[in-house]
Request: fold
Amino acid sequence: VTRLGTLRRAAALCGHTPLLGLVEETMERLQPRNVARIPWDEVKRHTSSDDLWLLIDGKVYDVTPFLGLHPGGGQLIVDAAGKDATSIFEL
Reply:
């Protein structure tokens, strides 16, 4: 969905109405239903390298197992903890 957000912004900027409509329709269809809501204060509690959550595009991910696997290094993920990391990980 994050990449769709980028595509939506690009379509809006260039005025490509048919593409914008298609992207927005697709994003709506991909929205999860009946999911748990995690309070922001809870996300901010998980910022250590042995328990790390990220908020990306409105979704919370437990990324603890991926710290050693991230191609840019685990420190990039640790630095993104406790804040909305969407722009950091969006291409």
Summary: The chain has a mean pLDDT of 87. Strands lie at 47-48, 51-56, 59-62. DSSP finds five helices and three strands in the chain. The longest strand covers residues 51-56.
